[in-house]
Amino acid sequence: MRPRSGKERSFRAVPSWLLFAFGVTLVLQVALRGTAPAPHAAAQDLPDPPSLNALEILALGEPVGLAYALGLRLQTFDNQPGVSIPFARLDYPKVEKWLDAMLALDPRGQYAMMMATYLYAQVFTRPDKQREMSAFVYRHFVEAPDQRWQWLAHMTIMAKHRLHDLPLAIRYADAIHALATGPEVPAWARQMRIFLREDVGEVESARALLGGLLASGTVKDPREFRFLSERLKSMGSAENSTGVTKR
Fold first, then answer.
1. Nearest CA among 187, 198, 107, 105 for reference residue 153
2. DSSP letters along 170-231, please?
3. pTM for the complete prediction?
4. What is the pLDDT of residues 154-205, one digit of tens each?
5. CA trace torsion 230, 233, 239, 244 (10° rounding)
6. Cross-strand partners of 79
7. What is the CA radius of gyration of the chain?
8. Runs of H (alpha helix) within the chain
9. Structural domain boundaries of the chain?
């Protein structure tokens, strides 16, 4: 045990008034911390993305990597420290700017279109935001139909089943048929317009389109041809049962 030096003082030598003041200060500090409001985490607004010129400089020759980084930044924005922001509260015009920037950096990438379709269009309580995202997907589909048809096909289904807007669904399906003509585009995607017209009551138009498709010789798969032929017959039976006169 180290011997006590002459300069050290015993705890008992501390004046009682100083001990009392220290005790009062400690009690006040504990009381104030106990009554203070809990820290409040405030959500930050989504900022605009950097300009395209700035992004091209930041990319350092790797625009695809930067596009992916932008997507991760946007995708995690709704989870801020202490705050979880529902997609419905996000500023969708700014969300579109971020997605636009991603596509400008990486036109062949699918990440931005996937986010628009499977994240930001899935706000089922906000049809207005679903329509914003479907319009975004349609706009960028037109730029590269053979590469982006699947996202518009999803929006076609959403327009029918979620928005209950068959005219919009038909518009998207018609665009797929007219513009997505590459060999990688499956037949079912290009035929959606036929069955949507049947759903909306345009049976005669659907029959004409389907009959023309079968007569064109473009359906090569025997099983697909048989299925479509049977569907054409069923359309005729349904039309006759309603008493509609064929033109």
1. 187
2. HHHHHHHHHH--STTS-HHHHHHHHHHHHHTT-HHHHHHHHHHHHHHT----HHHHHHHHHH
3. 0.69
4. 999 999 999 999 999 999 999 999 999 999 998 888 888 988 887 776 667 6
5. 160
6. 84
7. 32
8. 16-35, 52-59, 63-75, 92-105, 111-115, 127-143, 145-161, 166-179, 187-199, 203-216, 222-241
9. 46-120, 151-240
